[in-house]
Structures are given as structure tokens and as C-alpha cells.
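Render this sequence as a predicted structure.
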Amino acid sequence: MLLDPRIVGKVIADYRAKKHMTQEVLSGLAGIGRTHLSAIERGERKPTLETLYRLSLAMDTKMSSLILTIEQELP
């Protein structure tokens, strides 16, 4: 079984929305391009561990919380 990148993207987008952040703000704080973040949120790209870590720091969230939420969304 492979990890569905759409689930990863949805979780990141949901966390970002809960923090009331735009893609521009989050990508800037995480040091990644907005188009890269957009592709991750749409499930077109999978984030590396480094990118996931940067996103979690930028959202003031533990990376483990993101991963647990991703696991809960898996079928």
C-alpha cells in the first residue's frame, strides 16, 4: 500500500486553514515556494520529511501531530 498524496495534502491544508494562514504566508514561513505548497495540498507532490518538518514549524504544530492525523485519514 502506498501513501496517498491527496490525504497528506488535505491534512496540511486543513491545518493551515485552522491556523488562518494563506498559502503565501505558510510557504514564506516554511521557506518553500507557494506553487510547491499548492502542489502538495492538491496531492500532486509528496513533501519530503524536511518539508513536512518546516511546514509543521511554520504552523507551530508538532510534526508528529501532522503524521498522526494523516494516519487517521488512511483507509
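Summary. DSSP finds five helices and no strands in the chain. The radius of gyration is 11 Å.
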